[in-house]
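Hey, quick one: can you model this chain's 3D structure?
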Amino acid sequence: MSGPDPAPGPDPAPGTRRTNPWKIATASLIGTSVEWYDFGIYATASALVFPELFFPEMNRALGTLMSFATLFVGALGRPLGAIVFGHIGDRYGRKKALIWSLLLMGAGTVGIGLLPGYRTVGVIAPVLLVLVRMTQSLAVGGEWGGAVLFAVEHAPPRRKAFFGSFPQVGDGVGYFLSTGAFAAVGLLGHRALADWAWRIPFLLSAVLVMVGLLIRRTMSESPEFEAAQQATEAEAREGARAERQPAAPGTPEAAAGKPARRKREAPFLTVLRDAWRTWLLASGAFLITVGGYYIVVTFMSTYAVDNLGFTDAQAAGAGTAASLVVIICTPLAALAADRFGLRRITLTGILLHLVVAFPMFWLAGTRSVPGLWLAMCLPMLASTIAYAAIGTLVSGWFTPRTRYTGLSMSFQTAGLVGTLAPAATSWLFTASGNSWTPVALAFAAMALLSAVCLVAQGRRDPR
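Sure thing. Here's the predicted structure for all 463 residues.
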């Protein structure tokens, strides 16, 4: 049995300010809770009410497909958000990037809650939905990677996976709140939900955003970022001194008549030039944790309501139970990763997706509420084990000066591909004559690809 993986980054230099890691981890948890509450209510609404609100001229199957497609179209902003907020986080500080990503996400979510439907403004309604959705995705592109880094870079060396898992716990808390909100308004009946009650969870996000902003304003900057900034400033001072001194005879600088001063490159260009293989392999490793999540919380919800006879409230209730699995099991899986190794625990979680790919549909097919709960909780448990430590693991694959950008680009590239999963699986389900077998095979294929990428990166970087 191997020991735990090394810490993903060096300890900060002596004298660098260090904040209590529990405070930072809690702040990261609350921030990602707000972000994923916002994102979760969109995913739930796209399964339950958006087909008839924004695509009423289509039949239910096609309307659901189009509703899920807005997840992908809107998610085009995620890689751009990773680059923009990654640049801010790597150049100007993790804290600034995290505050602005939260503010932008909240504005987009409240905007969706105020949108008119198709019957009011016609085709303008789905266009506005996609535009506001892209704003949300831009913010998500910069949120998760920064939250993980903030927690990991403040954590003690032997507990980096544990503290780095708090943003993932925040995902579960946000999902719990979002599905809980829809379960509550779903009790009003589907007609009230489709007419007006769906707006309530979106508008309530304004309160959560204000709480998140107040907490993030109290956080101090990452010690590893401050150490990297000090090193960069020292290099700049050294370069300025070199410019003031004449170049040695016979050097290229002397022949050119100017000193060789290296221009500071944008972080995403550095990642593309020096770490492109790592970026692609990390994106592949993340895929099942994103795409599998969407299959569980969106496709399974729709499948349960439209094909198995469950009510909206029962489907939302099963999603709420799955979110509790995330909240409870994420820190436990992270502690195991600190003890037995980041890569070992992450790979175990990825491979467990292969185990549950078919049983989750068998369980849902029992048409019982306990069966539906198990059908959503078991794959979510596999996702939780994989997701708990993968952010800590992948953050160590990039240097501190490009870590925010590299981690965010990897996760959001996977996110862009993963958001195709609901639309793709809906198409596979319909094209196969309402058979779930192709969906289960697609779920397993994503897990297999993620496992291959993780193993391949392990051979390149054995930490």
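One thing worth noting: Confidence is low (pLDDT under 50) at residues 12-16.
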